[in-house]
Write a structure and sequence with these properties.
With 139 residues, the protein is an alpha+beta fold. It has one domain. 27% of the residues lie in helices and 21% in strands. It is built from 3 helices and 6 strands. The chain has a 6-stranded mixed beta sheet.
């Protein structure tokens, strides 16, 4: 089974990289550009492919393939799956929570799964920030 093409695997990190270190690098790289939607050609396509590559990683110690990206509106999204080199592995809630905490930092409480919890138990799950509640003033 091949992995979802949206989850481009960038650099591979071994045991000398912690979850916190990889997440910090992905956060930095996500802030350097945006994921451009739609069919792209030429230079725009190359820029998008480079962004996909630099905002994705395989972390060997946890068996996680992760992406952390910003879209054109500035919203941040993470894609996480557990995978060996050629197939998905079972989902691990505890390790996924570590990744989400390190990727979203203080915004972790607002993060929601965008595909619905457990919609694909052994595949990629996507997460994003929920909209902040609007405060209305009454006079």
């Amino acid at each position: 089974m091949s992995l979802d093409p949206q989850l481009t695997v960038g650099r591979i990190f071994g045991s000398d990289w912690t979850i916190a270190n990889v997440a910090k690098l992905l956060r930095f790289n996500a802030g350097q550009g945006i994921m451009r939607p739609g069919p792209l050609t030429g230079v725009q396509r190359e820029v998008n492919q480079n962004y996909l590559r630099t905002t994705s990683a395989r972390h060997l110690p946890t068996g996680v393939v992760v992406s952390f990206r910003r879209d054109a509106s500035g919203s941040l999204y993470a894609g996480i799956c557990f995978a060996s080199l050629d197939h998905y592995l079972p989902w691990d809630d505890a390790i996924a929570e570590e990744w989400l905490t390190e990727l979203f930092l203080q915004d972790r409480p607002r993060v929601q799964e965008t595909t619905g919890p457990g919609s694909q138990p052994n595949a990629i799950r996507y997460f994003g920030l929920a909209a902040e509640p609007r405060v209305t003033m009454r006079g």
